[in-house]
Amino acid sequence: MTVHVAFLLVANLHLLDLAGPAQVFSTANDLGYGYRLSYVAETETILTAQGIPVRAQVRWPDLGPKDLVVVPGWSRSRPRQVPAIGPETARRLRCHHADGGSVASVCSGADALGAAGLLDGRRFTTHHDLAGELTVRYPRAKIVRDVLYVTDDRVITSAGIASGIDLALHLVAGDHGPAAAARVAREMVVYARRNGHEPQESVMLRHRDHLSDLSHRVQDVIDERYADRLPLGDLARRAGVSERTLTRAFTAATGLTPLRYQQLLRLERAEHLIGHGTTVEAAARAVGFDDARMLRRLRSRAGKPAEG
């Protein structure tokens, strides 16, 4: 069976929102999993946010219940008073879903699904910067914050930009099984297929919004070697400062001590491994703990299950 994936392109779209999932389905098809891709828009030429024009067909393809419509996101620089899609496009989306088909969005593409009425009464997610705006715009929908993607009654929404790859891999797994998605991810040299409940922002991103060069340099070391034993004295010597100066500067910049930052990196990586079937004991060893006791304590503080 071949699944027809139709990408609905909106003016000022982000290239990666389109190219990421398109590459997943194209690679899956190359590997024999049966996907056909097409591109539809309200005009034949769409100018992307990155300045590259792309071509699309204005006539919608014939789609069936097994087929999928994906709406990539677009730059928010476009005037907000301009509707994301016209009434005929909204009707097409509603009809496809009513006929048993699936619809998906990446980032601000959720706005188009909302305009079509497909978020009403359903859970959805989007880029964290858009969550508040879309919650106000579509009060009958329920936002799920800080996750990569959400599925609710054949309406699949994902967070920002690169999470479209995770969404597409998830859909390939639903069609052909996790091994097929893993094969596609490996072919694309994607580091790992992330689960939908994983956070949009990693520990590395959440604690990098500061201007301390010293702290950034030390974070670079910890990010690269989080599974190693990193005594404070060694980090201070690498940074060329005293332990006291390092601790004071790092804490002021990140809100964490270097040890706590390393622990959070280890915990985040361990949760990823556990979410993909690794035991707590094996995950603990993989991220640098001598045994699972410290990992269990950290998971307990974070409100995670005692066992994985």
TrEMBL record:
<dbReference type="InterPro" id="IPR029062">
    <property type="entry name" value="Class_I_gatase-like"/>
</dbReference>
<dbReference type="Pfam" id="PF12833">
    <property type="entry name" value="HTH_18"/>
</dbReference>
<feature type="domain" description="HTH araC/xylS-type">
    <location>
        <begin position="216"/>
        <end position="308"/>
    </location>
</feature>
<keyword id="KW-0804">Transcription</keyword>
<keyword id="KW-0805">Transcription regulation</keyword>
<dbReference type="Pfam" id="PF01965">
    <property type="entry name" value="DJ-1_PfpI"/>
</dbReference>
<protein>
    <submittedName>
        <fullName>Transcriptional regulator GlxA family with amidase domain</fullName>
    </submittedName>
</protein>
<dbReference type="InterPro" id="IPR018060">
    <property type="entry name" value="HTH_AraC"/>
</dbReference>
<dbReference type="InterPro" id="IPR002818">
    <property type="entry name" value="DJ-1/PfpI"/>
</dbReference>
<dbReference type="GO" id="GO:0003700">
    <property type="term" value="F:DNA-binding transcription factor activity"/>
</dbReference>
<dbReference type="InterPro" id="IPR009057">
    <property type="entry name" value="Homeodomain-like_sf"/>
</dbReference>
<dbReference type="InterPro" id="IPR052158">
    <property type="entry name" value="INH-QAR"/>
</dbReference>
<dbReference type="GO" id="GO:0043565">
    <property type="term" value="F:sequence-specific DNA binding"/>
</dbReference>
